[in-house]
Amino acid sequence: MKNEFDKKLQSWLQEVATTCDKYAQEIDLDFYPFQSPLPQSNIELLVVAINPGGSKSYKVMLEEKSKEYGKVIEARTSEMLAYDVNMYAVKPQWEIDNKLKGNDVMRTKLKRVFVTEQLQNILKNSTVMNMYYFNTQDTAALGKLSNLIKEFCEKKTFEFIEITKPQKILFFTTDNYTLSKCGVQNNSIKSIGNYVKEGVLKNGQNVLAIPNPGFYRAYSHDNGKQIGVHITKYINS
Question: How many Å apart are CA 38 and CA 35, to the nearest integer?
Answer without folding.
Answer: 9
